[in-house]
């Protein structure tokens, strides 16, 4: 493939939280662009002012920044084809709608909202299309004089595409191959609205042309719009200039069929948005992957594998590796079922793979939230190394390691008491004495002394290890018990043994 001038775009309508499917669209655009030393553009498609949501645009860029998917051109960093926000490009589109009328591919429609409402009442599933347009008030049914008069009087109108009655439009999709559409099945979509704003259909085609987009990756839900876009390309700019299309398979709910929705996430207890999204009207917040405790590396890796693989069985990929290995040919046609357990597996893998220094700053706020003050970063790093194997999500670090920083809140003495006997009691009393005299304090010596003492008492270390763990940790979990003793130090170790012995009396 030619490497020069590859230009792709992500074209979101800023209407709310960013669905993980949206981020995957960004990712595939980004990978393709970077692989070919091309440009990745973010264009804000906000021509539907009724759907405007405050803060939604900024939120999209925050999500992209978190994922490390930085646009080359956008509303934030500008670029040679600015502005990149369609509402600021309003003046551009009308001439193209007029050109379509001129060429006979579009027409003025003067039907008032009331008239259309009447029609909808009269005809079930009324559609403005090749069958009904002849009974409507438009420049196909009115005389040219009346049309001119209406325009001169500023009568409100929309401009509609005149869909051919019975033509086949072929979409050559990079993922799906050839997809044929019969034009008679589509309605005469509005291209320009009464307020002079273009609709999505006109704006997306005009801007893809003006911004010299070469490849358009978007969700499969846009496939039904493809024939309209292809016709507009044919009528306005020529099919040879049209971008190559790739409609990405849907991300499906884990149970049942259909697209994964925000509601599925709420129902099944997992995030669907990239980051927390707070609806400015209701004030309701929907949790994001970031706040749930995912690393961006894991989130991006997991998304890439939803619908793509490199054929080798490898599952863990860095963004750089994805850029190198990504190929459209290996994107599956079918939808990919979302699996939250697998998503957590990716995060767990990345927590092991990256140095803890890389994500310690993301973990710290969770300690603060739990009321644990970190005073020694080196100690925190060491603790994180010890427990990371047991962590899937960032907040797990707090749960898995709070006892390194504070005396356990609760000691599960019930799990010790059942098998507790005088010999064990005696062992721990003596252990305290020995520990008080200890001159070295490290995992190996602690373990060696402990085992020697156990042998002297004719006790199996196994019988003593669980009580010792519960004394230090509070419960039956945590890393190697002598690592814990070594880390928390002499005073805390002795204090915790004494404390539990008292509770057992
Ligand atoms: N504005 C559309 C959206 O909200 C873009 C679809 C496309 O990429 O053509 O997803």
Question: Can you walk me through this structure?
Answer:
- The chain has 505 residues and is mostly helical.
- The protein folds into 4 domains: 3-84 and 250-337, HUPs (Rossmann fold); 87-210, Glutamyl-tRNA Synthetase, domain 3 (Alpha-Beta Complex); 355-404, Helicase, Ruva Protein, domain 3, CATH 1.10.8; 414-504, Arc Repressor Mutant, subunit A, CATH 1.10.10.
- It is built from 21 helices and 13 strands.
- The chain has a 3-stranded antiparallel sheet.
- α1 links the parallel β1 and β2.
- α1 packs across α11 (319-325), α17 (422-437) runs antiparallel to α21 and α18 packs across α20.
- The mean pLDDT is 96.
- Residues 11-13, 45, 200, 204, 218, 222 line the site of glutamic acid (GLU).
What's the arrangement of secondary structure elements?
Layout lengths: L6 E4 L9 H16 L3 E4 L13 H12 L22 H13 L3 E4 L3 H10 L21 H9 L5 E4 L6 E6 L3 E6 L7 E3 L7 H11 L4 E5 L6 H11 L7 E5 L2 E2 L9 H7 L8 E2 L6 E2 L2 H4 L3 H10 L13 H7 L10 E2 L2 H14 L2 H14 L7 H11 L8 H10 L8 H4 L4 H16 L5 H14 L4 H13 L7 H8 L1 H15 L1
Parallel strand pairs: 1-2, 8-9, 10-13
Antiparallel strand pairs: 3-4, 4-7, 5-6, 11-12
The protein binds glutamic acid.
């Amino acid at each position: 493939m030619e490497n020069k001038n590859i230009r792709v775009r992500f074209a979101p309508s800023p209407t709310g939280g960013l669905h993980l499917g949206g981020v995957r669209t960004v990712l595939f655009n980004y990978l393709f662009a970077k692989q070919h030393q091309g440009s990745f553009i973010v264009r804000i498609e906000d021509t539907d002012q009724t759907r405007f949501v405050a803060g939604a645009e900024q939120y999209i860029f925050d999500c992209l920044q978190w994922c490390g998917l930085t646009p080359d051109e956008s509303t934030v960093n500008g670029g040679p084809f600015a502005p990149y926000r369609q509402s600021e490009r309003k003046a551009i589109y009308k001439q193209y709608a007029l050109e379509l009328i001129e060429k006979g591919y579009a027409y003025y429609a003067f039907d008032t909202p009331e008239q259309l409402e009447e029609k909808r009442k009269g005809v079930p599933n009324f559609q403005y299309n090749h069958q009904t347009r002849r009974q409507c008030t438009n420049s196909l049914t009115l005389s040219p004089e009346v049309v001119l008069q209406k325009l001169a009087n500023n009568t409100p109108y929309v401009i509609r595409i005149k869909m051919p009655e019975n033509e086949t439009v072929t979409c050559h999709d990079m993922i799906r191959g050839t997809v044929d559409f019969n034009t008679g099945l589509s309605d005469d979509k509005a291209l320009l609205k009464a307020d002079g704003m273009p609709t999505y259909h006109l704006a997306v085609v005009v801007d893809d042309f003006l911004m010299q987009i070469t490849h358009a990756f978007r969700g499969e839900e846009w496939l039904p719009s493809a024939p309209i876009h292809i016709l507009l390309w044919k009528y306005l700019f020529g099919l040879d200039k049209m971008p190559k299309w790739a409609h990405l398979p849907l991300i499906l709910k884990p149970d049942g069929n259909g697209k994964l929705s925000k509601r599925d996430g709420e129902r099944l207890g997992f995030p669907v948005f990239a980051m927390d999204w707070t609806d400015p009207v209701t004030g309701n917040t929907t949790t994001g992957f970031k706040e749930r405790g995912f690393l961006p590396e894991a989130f991006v890796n997991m998304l890439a594998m939803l619908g793509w693989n490199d054929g080798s069985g490898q599952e863990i990929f860095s963004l750089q590796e994805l850029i190198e290995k990504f190929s459209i040919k290996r994107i599956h046609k079918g939808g990919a079922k979302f699996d939250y357990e697998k998503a957590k597996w990716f995060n767990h893998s990345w927590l092991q793979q990256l140095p803890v220094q890389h994500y310690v700053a993301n973990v710290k706020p969770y300690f603060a939230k739990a009321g644990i003050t970190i005073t020694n970063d080196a100690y925190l790093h060491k603790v994180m190394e010890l427990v990371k194997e047991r962590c899937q999500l960032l907040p797990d670090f707090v749960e898995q390691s709070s006892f390194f920083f504070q005396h356990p809140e609760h000691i599960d003495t019930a799990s010790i008491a059942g098998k507790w006997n005088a010999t064990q009691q005696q062992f721990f009393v003596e252990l305290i004495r020995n520990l008080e005299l200890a001159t070295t304090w490290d995992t190996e010596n602690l373990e060696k002394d402990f085992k020697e003492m156990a042998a002297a008492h004719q006790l199996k270390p196994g019988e003593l290890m669980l009580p010792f763990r519960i004394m230090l940790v509070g419960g039956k979990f945590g890393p190697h018990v002598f690592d814990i003793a070594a880390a928390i130090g002499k005073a805390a170790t002795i204090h915790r043994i004494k404390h539990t012995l008292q509770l057992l009396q």
